[in-house]
Write a structure and sequence with these properties.
The complex is a heterodimer of chains A (365) and B (431).
Chain A lengths: L2 H6 L21 H5 L4 E8 L2 E6 L4 E7 L4 E3 H14 L3 E4 L5 E5 L5 H10 L31 H10 L1 H5 L9 E4 L11 E7 L4 E2 L1 H7 L2 H7 L5 E6 L2 E6 L17 E2 L6 E7 L14 E7 L7 H17 L6 H8 L1 H8 L27
Parallel strand pairs in A: 7-8
Antiparallel strand pairs in A: 1-2, 2-3, 3-6, 5-6, 8-13, 9-12, 10-11, 13-14
Chain B lengths: L8 H5 L8 H9 L3 H16 L4 E2 L12 E2 L2 E2 L18 E4 L6 E3 H14 E7 L6 E6 L1 H13 L15 E2 L13 H9 L3 H5 L9 E4 L8 H4 L2 E7 L4 E2 L1 H21 L7 E5 L9 E5 L4 E6 L8 H5 L4 E2 L4 E7 L13 E7 L4 H21 L6 H8 L1 H8 L22 H14 L1
Parallel strand pairs in B: 8-9, 9-10
Antiparallel strand pairs in B: 1-3, 2-4, 4-7, 6-7, 10-16, 11-15, 12-14, 13-14, 16-17
Classes of the chains: A alpha+beta (365), B alpha+beta (431).
Chain lengths: 365, 431
C-alpha cells in the first residue's frame, strides 16, 4: 500500500495480536537454555552470588543486585550496559525486584560486582539476608492509597542496607509493605500495612452519582453500611459501632473517604511464610499498630521494624524463619524481648479466631 | 529541556541514603519531560497532605476490555482545573512477562525506547501480580505504546474481574529443585484463558501461580486462586560425594540441630552405614565412611528443608509432578485464605499431563464463573458451598490429603454413607 492510499483510507484500528505469555526460551542465558531441567546443586560463594552446577558439569554464577523497582529508562539502560559487558546480554528479575546477571566465567564475578556497586546497585539479597521489600504503588499510582510504597521501601532499605548485603540473619527475611488493608504486598516475615482507625467520612453530595449503592452495601464485611436519604439525597450511612475501619467500601465508592492524614496509622505484622519448609505456610500476625504515617522517611516505623529484626537476629537459631523462632520462644517472650505492648486489639475476634486462642495449659514461664 | 521543576523538599529526602532512589530516577526523567515535572509536583503534594490524588476511569486499547489501569488526577484548583496539568493523565499498561522473568537487553532497550516515546519513562519490574508495569501515559498514547509492545510479541495482562497475569519461578532454567517445567505449564494454562484475561467478565479476579517446588518462591499458596506447586512421589535422590562434602564442612552439631531436628515429621535418622534399612522407601546419603543419613520417604511430607540445607546431597526424586491447591487469597472479605489441596499429585512431564492441568483449570473457571457471587473469590465460594460440593462438581474423588483432619463435629447428615462406601469399594476393585 503506498502512502497516498494509506492517508486517504479511513483510520483503521489495529487489532491486537492475542499472543499471551511469550516464550521465555528466546530470552534465556545460553547456559541456562542448554541445561534446562538438568541442574544438580548450588552453593553461595559469597552474599549476592549463587553458583549452580549442572549434571553435565556446566557452572553458572548469578550475581543479584537490588533495584528501586520503579525504574527510569536511564537506570534500565545502565543495567543493560552492564549485562552487555559482563553477562552475555541476559538478565532476569526476582519476585522481589532484584536483578540477576548470569556469568559462566568465575573471573567475571568480581568485576561485575564492582561495576554494579560503582553504579549504586547493592549486591546481595541471597540466602540469609534481608531481601528487597515487596511493595505496591502508593501515592505514585494507586487510587486508594493510605500512604506511599516506594518511599517507605526506600527509607527502610536505607536502614537495612547492610543486612541486604550480608547473609547474617538466622534464615532469609522477606518484607512487604501495603498502602491499605487489602495488603497487595502480601504475606511476609515482616509486613508494614496501613491500619485505618476511623470510619470513612462520607460526602453525601456525591454518593448517588458516583456509587452503585447495593454493591457498596454488599462489600462491607460487617454489614455496617445501609442505604439512607441524607439531606434529601439518596446516600449511604454507616453504623459506626459496627464499622472496623477496613476501607473495603472506599474502592467501589470514593466519596466514602477512609484515608486520613492523622488517623490512618501503620501496623506491623510478623511471621508470614509461604514456603512449606519445616512447618506449613503461615499467615502473619499483627504485633504493633498506631504508628504515625510520617512521610517522607517514616522513622517511627523504621525503629520498630529494626528492633524486631535485630531481636530476631540475636535470638533465633540457624534456619529459623521469624515464624519458626516465635513458635519456639512463644508469643509472651516475643513481646517481652521486643518490648512491644500486647494490647487487647491483638486478640483475634474475626471468623475462625478461636483457633488463635490458647486452648491448653502450655505456657512458657 | 523540560519546564522548571517544582520544589520537592519531601521527595528530596528520599534521594539520601545508599539504596537506589526512585526519586532520583523521576528527576532524571523530569529533565526531559514536562510530564514528569508535574508528576513530581503531584507526588510531593501527596507527601505534604498524606493523601492520594488519582482516580480510575475507562481507558483501554482497541479490542480489549482490560489491562490498562487508568489514572486521572483529582488534584484540582478552585475552577476544577488540574493543578499539575501535564500529569493530569497517568495511566499504566500491564504487560505480561515471560515465565521466570528472563530478558535480553535488546528487549529491555526496546521497552525503554517505546516508553520514552509514548510514556513517562518509568517502568516497574514487576508488579505484585507479575506484570511489567509501564507507569504513566496519556489516554492518547496508550494505544500507540501498546501497538508497539504488541508488535514485539508482548501482550496486555489482566485487570478487574478477569484471569490475571501469572508468575512462575526461575525453575528448570536454573534451579535443581524444579519439579516440572514451570514455563511450559505457565504458558499452557494462561494462554488458554486469553479471552478471560483481556475481556473481564468473571465474578471477580482469578490468579494462577506456578512454583517449581514446595519452597514456593512465587508465594502461590497465599496469593493465587490456583497454585501449582512442584513435588515428587518417589524417594528423595542422594549423592554420597556431596553428602560427605557437606558433612566435612558442617559437622555433626549442624547435622543434628539444623537437619535432623528440623524435619517436621521426624523422617530423618542418623545411622551407622550397616544399619541403614534396605526397604524400598528408604533413601540414605553417606556422611563419612561409617555414618549415613536415613530418610523414610513414607513419612516425608516434601517440605524441602533438608534439601535446602544439604543441596545436592539430597534432592527431589525422579517421579516429579505438582500438587494443585485452590482458593488462596488475601484479606477481603472473610479473611486471608491459603489454597487447599485439590489435586494431591498430577504428572506434568508430558503434553497429556499439562493438558490435564489445563482441563482442570478450565473446569474450575467455568464453575467459578457460574457459581461465585459477584466480587467473591474462588476460596470464598468454596468456603460457602463446602469443599465436598466443589469436589463433586469437579468430579474429583475425596482424598484424606485434602484435610488436616477429619471433621470435628457431628453436625452432618450421613444417610448416604453406605452408598459412598460402596462407590469407593467398587473403584478399588476396578483399579
Amino acid at each position: 500500500m503506498n502512502q497516498a492510499v494509506q492517508t486517504a483510507a479511513p483510520a483503521q484500528k489495529r487489532k491486537p495480536k492475542e499472543t499471551g505469555v511469550p516464550d521465555n526460551k528466546q530470552y534465556l542465558h545460553p547456559v541456562l537454555a542448554k541445561n534446562y531441567g538438568n541442574w544438580k546443586y548450588h552453593d553461595r560463594p559469597r552474599p549476592g552470588v549463587l553458583h549452580h552446577v549442572s549434571y553435565g558439569g556446566d557452572e553458572v554464577w548469578s550475581v543479584r543486585a537490588g533495584t528501586q523497582r520503579q525504574m527510569d529508562i536511564y537506570t534500565i539502560r545502565k543495567l543493560c550496559d552492564i549485562a552487555d559487558q559482563y553477562a552475555e546480554s541476559r538478565v532476569r528479575f526476582t519476585i522481589r525486584s532484584n536483578i540477576e546477571f548470569m556469568v559462566t566465567d568465575e573471573k567475571k564475578v568480581a568485576p561485575l560486582i564492582a561495576e554494579l556497586e560503582k553504579n549504586g546497585f547493592p549486591v546481595g539479597g541471597t540466602g540469609n539476608s534481608i531481601s528487597m521489600i515487596a511493595h505496591t504503588q502508593g501515592w505514585l499510582h494507586c487510587d486508594i492509597p493510605g500512604t506511599d510504597a516506594s518511599g517507605v521501601v526506600k527509607a527502610l532499605m536505607d536502614e537495612l542496607y547492610d543486612e541486604f548485603k550480608r547473609e547474617e540473619m538466622p534464615n532469609r527475611v522477606h518484607l512487604s509493605t501495603s498502602c491499605c488493608e487489602i495488603n497487595c504486598g502480601g504475606q511476609a516475615d515482616l509486613a508494614i500495612i496501613v491500619q485505618h482507625t476511623k470510619p470513612p467520612v462520607i460526602n453525601h453530595d456525591l454518593v448517588a452519582n458516583v456509587c452503585e449503592r447495593p454493591t457498596v452495601v454488599a462489600r462491607c464485611p460487617v454489614a455496617a453500611i445501609r442505604p439512607a436519604m441524607v439531606n434529601g439525597k439518596p446516600s449511604l450511612e454507616i453504623d459506626e459501632s459496627k464499622c472496623m475501619c477496613c476501607g473495603a467500601c472506599y474502592p467501589p465508592c470514593p466519596p466514602m473517604q477512609i484515608n486520613d492524614p492523622e488517623n490512618s496509622k501503620l501496623a506491623i505484622w510478623v511471621g508470614g511464610k509461604n514456603s512449606n519448609a519445616r512447618g506449613k505456610p503461615t499467615f502473619m500476625k499483627m504485633v504493633a499498630s498506631g504508628l504515625p504515617n510520617n512521610a517522607p522517611r517514616w522513622p517511627e516505623v523504621a525503629e520498630v521494624v529494626k528492633n524486631i529484626l535485630m531481636v530476631y537476629k540475636a535470638d533465633a537459631r540457624p534456619w529459623e524463619r521469624l515464624a519458626d523462632w516465635i513458635d519456639r520462644i512463644g508469643w509472651p517472650r516475643f513481646f517481652e524481648k521486643t518490648g512491644l505492648p500486647f494490647t487487647k486489639y491483638l486478640i483475634d475476634d474475626w471468623s475462625g479466631s478461636r483457633a488463635n486462642l490458647n486452648a491448653s495449659a502450655h505456657i512458657r514461664f | 529541556m523540560a519546564k522548571k521543576m517544582h520544589d520537592t523538599p519531601n521527595l528530596d529526602e528520599l534521594e539520601k541514603g545508599p539504596w537506589p532512589s526512585f526519586v532520583t530516577g523521576l528527576k532524571e526523567l523530569a529533565k526531559e519531560k514536562d510530564y514528569m515535572v508535574d508528576l513530581l509536583g503531584q507526588l510531593e503534594t501527596s507527601y505534604k497532605t498524606k493523601k492520594g490524588y488519582w482516580k480510575g476511569g475507562t481507558v483501554g486499547v482497541y479490542g480489549y476490555g482490560g489491562g490498562v489501569i487508568p489514572r486521572f488526577t483529582e488534584l484540582k484548583d478552585e475552577n476544577g482545573e488540574p493543578i499539575y496539568k501535564d500529569a493530569a493523565e497517568f495511566h499504566t499498561l500491564r504487560i505480561m512477562p515471560p515465565p521466570g522473568m528472563h530478558y535480553d537487553t535488546d528487549t529491555l532497550r526496546k521497552f525503554c525506547d517505546i516508553w520514552d516515546k509514548y510514556g513517562s519513562g518509568l517502568i516497574a519490574f514487576h508488579g505484585q501480580s507479575g506484570d511489567i508495569m509501564f507507569q504513566g501515559a496519556t489516554t492518547e498514547n496508550v494505544q500507540h505504546a501498546f501497538d508497539e509492545f504488541n508488535e514485539m510479541g508482548f501482550d496486555l495482562g489482566g485487570a478487574g474481574p478477569a484471569v490475571r497475569t501469572s508468575m512462575s519461578c526461575v525453575g528448570a532454567a536454573r534451579c535443581e529443585q524444579s519439579c516440572y517445567d514451570e514455563a511450559k505449564a505457565h504458558r499452557a494454562v494462561l494462554n488458554t484463558f486469553l479471552d478471560d484475561i483481556h475481556r473481564p467478565s468473571l465474578p471477580y479476579k482469578f490468579k494462577f501461580k506456578f512454583s517449581g517446588c514446595p519452597n514456593d518462591c512465587m508465594n502461590s499458596i497465599q496469593r493465587s486462586d490456583m497454585s501449582v506447586i512442584g513435588t515428587w512421589r518417589d524417594n528423595m535422590r542422594t549423592d554420597d560425594a556431596l553428602g560427605k562434602k557437606w558433612f566435612a564442612k558442617h559437622g555433626m552439631n549442624e547435622l543434628v540441630n539444623d537437619v535432623v531436628a528440623r524435619c517436621p515429621t521426624k523422617a530423618i535418622q542418623i545411622k551407622d552405614i550397616g544399619a541403614v534399612r534396605k526397604d524400598a522407601h528408604i533413601s540414605a546419603v553417606a556422611l563419612n565412611d561409617t555414618q549415613a543419613l536415613e530418610v523414610d520417604n513414607k513419612d516425608c511430607v516434601r517440605c524441602m528443608h533438608c534439601i535446602n540445607v544439604m543441596t545436592g546431597a539430597l534432592s527431589p526424586g525422579n517421579d516429579k509432578g505438582a500438587t494443585v491447591l485452590v482458593g488462596g487469597k488475601s484479606h477481603l472479605k472473610i479473611g486471608g485464605l491459603m489454597g487447599t489441596v485439590i489435586l494431591p499429585f498430577i504428572k506434568l512431564d508430558t503434553d497429556e499431563g499439562v493438558e490435564k492441568l489445563v482441563d482442570f483449570a478450565q473446569r474450575t473457571i467455568d464453575f467459578f464463573a457460574e457459581n461465585a457471587l459477584e466480587h467473591e473469590r474462588t476460596g470464598e465460594m468454596i468456603e460457602r458451598i463446602g469443599l465436598a460440593n466443589f469436589l463433586d462438581a469437579m468430579e474429583i474423588d475425596v482424598d484424606p490429603a485434602m484435610v488436616n483432619s477429619p471433621r470435628m463435629n457431628p453436625y452432618v447428615r450421613t444417610d448416604g454413607w453406605d452408598d459412598e462406601v460402596a462407590k469407593i469399594n467398587a473403584k478399588k476393585q476396578a483399579a
